[in-house]
Specification:
The chain is of the alpha+beta class.
Length: about 150
């Protein structure tokens, strides 16, 4: 069962906590193509299967920003916030893509709350997400997401 946090004082207590891992999700070519269509990022390494097969990774890879954009979906499988006020994406402090995600790989996210601080009547929470690639030695993405809860 996924924990649901409904009060700001519950969020404040999460500082320093590991919150768990999501389920594994397949990053298939259809997902990559749909992301390319939406963003207009048609770089050959993502969408030209013949050229990508002869490229540096031996096949197509997911866009880094596609991998990053999976965080909201994967987060909902780890924990949920249902406070009365708004939950705002305030930004990212740091994002790195240590390893490419080959097409048809399975990925999952882990989450750790780095800091939580009160800012006037709001709470600012910084959560580190690590998106792992099944069987790979390096993660696909490491990102610090800043969330503002009003």
């Amino acid at each position: 069962m996924v924990p649901v946090f409904r009060r700001l004082d519950e969020i404040v207590e999460l500082a320093g906590m590991e919150l768990g891992a999501s389920d594994w999700v397949v990053v298939d070519q259809d997902r990559i193509d749909r992301f390319a269509d939406v963003t207009g990022d048609m770089e050959w390494i993502h969408v030209d299967l013949d050229r990508a097969a002869a490229g540096p990774f031996g096949g197509a890879i997911a866009h880094g920003f596609l991998t990053l954009s999976l965080i909201p979906m994967l987060r909902e499988q780890i924990f949920q916030i249902d406070t009365p006020g708004a939950r705002l994406n305030y930004g990212l402090n740091r994002v790195r893509f240590p390893a490419p995600v080959p097409v048809n790989s399975r990925v999952r996210a882990t989450a750790r709350v780095l800091t939580v601080e009160r800012v006037d009547s709001s709470v600012r929470m910084i959560t580190e997400y690590v998106i792992e690639i099944e069987g790979a030695p390096k993660p696909a993405c490491v990102a610090e997401m800043v969330t503002l809860l009003t």
